[in-house]
Amino acid sequence: MTTLVFGHKSPDTDSTGSPLIWAWYLTEVQGQKAEAVLLGEPNTEAAFVLNRWDCPKPRIVTEIADGTPAVIVDTNNPAELPANVNALDVTAIIDHHKLVGGLETKGPIDITIRPLACTATIMHDLMGDTALPDQIKGLMLSCILSDTLEFRSPTTTEHDRAVAEKLAADLGIDIAAYASELFEAKSDISAFADAELLRMDSKEYEVAGTKFRVSVLETTAPKLVLDRKDSLMASMVDVAAQDGVDQVLLFVVDILNEEATLLVPNDLVKTLAEKSFAATVTGDTVVLPGVMSRKKQIIPVLTM
Amino acid sequence: MTTLVFGHKSPDTDSTGSPLIWAWYLTEVQGQKAEAVLLGEPNTEAAFVLNRWDCPKPRIVTEIADGTPAVIVDTNNPAELPANVNALDVTAIIDHHKLVGGLETKGPIDITIRPLACTATIMHDLMGDTALPDQIKGLMLSCILSDTLEFRSPTTTEHDRAVAEKLAADLGIDIAAYASELFEAKSDISAFADAELLRMDSKEYEVAGTKFRVSVLETTAPKLVLDRKDSLMASMVDVAAQDGVDQVLLFVVDILNEEATLLVPNDLVKTLAEKSFAATVTGDTVVLPGVMSRKKQIIPVLTM
């Protein structure tokens, strides 16, 4: 049977590129039958990356049959995976997120989780001195530049940076110029409805009994998002109700200026912002200097 | 702060040796402060190994303060770890068991789980070409021979075997002779009460709503155990009641003859044995040819 390789349900560049990278490795190097698939539509940056490196868009699957051999990458969170994930035949997990619990396997399998910025960096290490075609190098480089926001995110490690610089040198690619292309693609939000923007890159998180959907939009053009702030704040009420959370938080991360703007639709978010970030909130937005990473700078400080 | 490195609550050779191996690596190679500790008294084989390789017995700890830096080895099962394990600062997990779920970490950490027979084999790989002192090689070899029952267990992989043979060659040790010493040490059960034997190497497992404590005693002298079968079966009732399970199962694994004898104290176990192993039970024991591994040959087939 063919092993399906997939990341989480909101495929960004790492969750689109890493399945392709690992499916290539399983097929071409390990001699297994493997196929990269997506659990949702790739975001605009991921779509740009597929096009740039001549990769056909992987098949989008919404249901996977029990017992299907599977490799999970870029997440270990059952909430971000098919509902029947524990009934699949998961043979490996490669990830760089905290262990959230909930995944169970029938027997011992290969699990590699590392505190690095990007799944593709871990895959690079696992492949050792395997000779990589340019397409795979290009995907790896794209994943690392995307997840590290061109090394600006505090999740970046020296190792992620070194691997990216080596790949870029091999490919003859100028990192700054290529990263600009990536971020420009990610910043094109014109095709998305408000509710889509609120769900595009978001994780549920509970603080003192209150459930939040913590959404992040990384962009080089924050104005494009903030121009839509009134309708985004109106949409938050519907999205929260539909998704069974109490409040949506939207952090608009300005990649180039290295700051985030949090939308403040009500007193609940105002109080949260003031307590969590020692910020003074006067209007319906608040700028949080230096905040770029949900994992490192938002989730750990959220308090009510 | 010093990182505590520990395995599960019933320290066998792998759960005693692997913490020592990894604490050595963290201290001597990584330049960190680390200490191997045990969550219980080592079994007789592990005690023999400590003595053979001139290792002082690690400190036995029963409580670990919240926030203590910790590396967990040879398990990922919260039931086999301190009750406050998710409140510790776990920085790494190295294991070769199935993922059971339940462990959670505050941030991304190093997790390496491999479908190999022994934690020490994984550590050997993670250390790469680090020069190892004889003491560490001796501990690694002991762990692998113990967990693979000298390569007899079906959990054994070619890689475990190759690593053990390399270590034995480096040390000038005859594997067969040394394994005999290990198993002889493990087979000396004279100091243990019946209840201790029933709990020494056991895992809880539920079949169709019935809770079992599945105990295994690996020995080269099954007669020493079976001579005590009447009092062991009497003790099962008390142990089950105290531990909140419905039934204790005791499999006496004859390492040299590669078979297990299951004690059959009542009709419940008789039915279970007949359904699970296609065995015909006539008395109060049943021999199961070829059965050596709880993980591979007992847990997966248990049916009611």
Automatic annotation (TrEMBL), chains A, B:
Residues 179-302 form the DHHA2 domain. The keyword NADP does not apply. Its EC number is 3.6.1.1. It is an enzyme of class 3 (hydrolase). Its cofactor is Mn(2+). GO terms for molecular function: inorganic diphosphate phosphatase activity. It catalyses: diphosphate + H2O = 2 phosphate + H(+). Keywords: Hydrolase, Manganese, Metal-binding. It holds the Pfam family DHH. This is inorganic diphosphatase. It comes from Lacimonas salitolerans.
